[in-house]
């Protein structure tokens, strides 16, 4: 039976974060609030946990699972190299609604789906998410919904869709407007917008001082 914890209550928040950390380390899935929409997450380095996440969403590996991190420096060990464009965007928009696609470090043994050697990384601007990420490390996190259904903007909406396929629900209150993160691909010679979201292309271009190609 899945457990829900009200993170507005300090005692429940502490208990819920501890339960979520135990679940993640045990290879199970949890639902957590982020600054965009609610996410379903698991240990990014556990292939079986990622498969469980995709099964809960009723989704195949053709849409790779993004990775959330709890600090700027975490990505240094996850990617092949951090270009200046990535550093500049991280400094400007992290934590926040900007996801970066980079080549992942070839030494990493993870299976996030059909990534073609890349990984999508983001640092969310939400205290509950950041506390969990800083405890357990990088997590594979996708929107907390069944594929094809609207993304959940509350823990209750996530539970309606995912039920007991998730071990722990961290209720951080309503997420507000369910706006997804902007996704910028930095694997080519020029930055490219893969998805327009919380951060505008114009804001990205202003930070980089160069044109950002459309998808």
UniProtKB/TrEMBL annotation:
Point out the coiled-coil segments of this chain: none
InterPro entries of this UniProt entry?
Answer: DHBP_synth_RibB-like_a/b_dom, Sua5-like_dom, TC-AMP_synthase_SUA5
Catalyzed chemical reaction(s): L-threonine + hydrogencarbonate + ATP = L-threonylcarbamoyladenylate + diphosphate + H2O
The GO terms describing molecular function are: ATP binding; double-stranded RNA binding; L-threonylcarbamoyladenylate synthase; tRNA binding
Keyword annotations for this protein? ATP-binding, Cytoplasm, Nucleotide-binding, Nucleotidyltransferase, Transferase, tRNA processing
Spell out the SUPFAM superfamilies in the cross-references: YrdC/RibB
Domain YrdC-like residues, every copy = 14-199
Instruction: Quote the subcellular location field of this record.
Output: Cytoplasm
Gene3D superfamilies attached here?
Answer: DHBP synthase
List, alphabetically, the PANTHER family matched. SUA5, THREONYLCARBAMOYL-AMP SYNTHASE
What protein name applies here?
A: L-threonylcarbamoyladenylate synthase
| Species assigned in the record | Pseudonocardia kunmingensis
